[in-house]
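A quick aside before the break. I want you to see a complete sequence-to-structure record at least once, exactly as it would be stored in a machine-readable document. Don't worry about memorizing anything.
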Amino acid sequence: MDGTDVTMLMREIGARARTAAAELAFAEPSRKEEALTAAAEAMLARADEILEANGRDLAFGAEKGLTPAMMDRLKLDRARIDGIVDGLRAVAGQPDPVGQVIAEWDRPTGLHIRRVRTPLGVVGVIYESRPNVTADAGALCLKSGNAVILRGGSESFHSSGAIHAALQDGLRQAGLPVDAIQRVPTRDRAAVAEMLRMVEHIDVIVPRGGKGLVGLVQAEARVPVFAHLEGICHVYADGDADLEKARRVVLNAKTRRTGICGSAECLLIDRAFLAKHGPVLIEDLLKAGVEVRAEGELAQVPGTVPAQPDDFGREFLDMIIAARVVDGVDGAIAHIRRYGSSHTESILTENDATAERFFRRLDSAILMRNASTQFADGGEFGMGAEIGIATGKMHARGPVGAEQLTSFKYLVTGDGTIRA
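That is the input. The structure line, written in tokens, reads:
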């Protein structure tokens, strides 16, 4: 497509989305639930088609030389399709957020005021290689009464298309406008630039991807953005940590899936923990095949690689982790404040006061105690799915589910009430 064609295409998509959003804003909860349930059934019926499309995407990714972590993000199999289906059903079964009363009160003037949830309108989602985002974003936007425009990465083009077809099957069955969930049908990057400028059609942009994509969106968008730039997640092993809990959590946080934003990228070990237990956490990681880029006394552990200054504050998204010794919880806090990305941090400790200090003095979107950072996920938070994890401080923060995709309005009732 040339630039004019892309501009016209995106304006048409945007206008159709705005029309669909106006209808979705007052759609009955039962119809939205029916659409998502039917989409889940369509996903199962189209499983072979989705896997065939994914095979084409995997071949394309291999030709492009994607990293193993990126290929893992891209890959679908029966188990992952089942996971997508489970997510659709979970979102379908959640309470509908639209119209929920957040707060209400009476004023001495005789006014009764309610603050109620209302859809944002049209959400634009720009994402890279994870085709499951197509389903997650479509489901959450529909549940929250928003139309959505999906622009997946070139790597997941065919997979996203097959999943999108199943979502539209569900909309048709429920009698909802198919334009409620639209997918940009081109790999042309000019479509991304258009979305970032479509202030008359799109109310918020959600980027899902690496630092390059998110940084571009944050720098160039004229539309408001929900985003996190990087997932530089830390695990801190305190001197009062339980050894076996710490060993389980550290291994899971790094190795379960290295290519997701909740993967641990830095291990901080209290000097007191090291004195009690030695470098057992480092040794566990090395045995699991993780490249440990260590500093100071940890660099003396056989098999580690000396850390470079830029290894701290770096999102590896691979079987690599940075590690250093810190002096107690305040040392960990100081390190995270300097190098963190406000995404997710976990403290491993049995000391309540230490955990409370960690929670109070850090301001990341998600703080955990004795739990793997891999739980930084909307599905694991009971949201059914997530459209992303926001690390900013305005509006949504942390996993962005259906409730976070709403704003609110005030409904004010009087009885011929006038202001003095």
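Two observations worth writing down. The chain has a mean pLDDT of 93. The domain at 233-375 is CATH 3.40.309.10 (Aldehyde Dehydrogenase; Chain A, domain 2). We'll return to this after the break.
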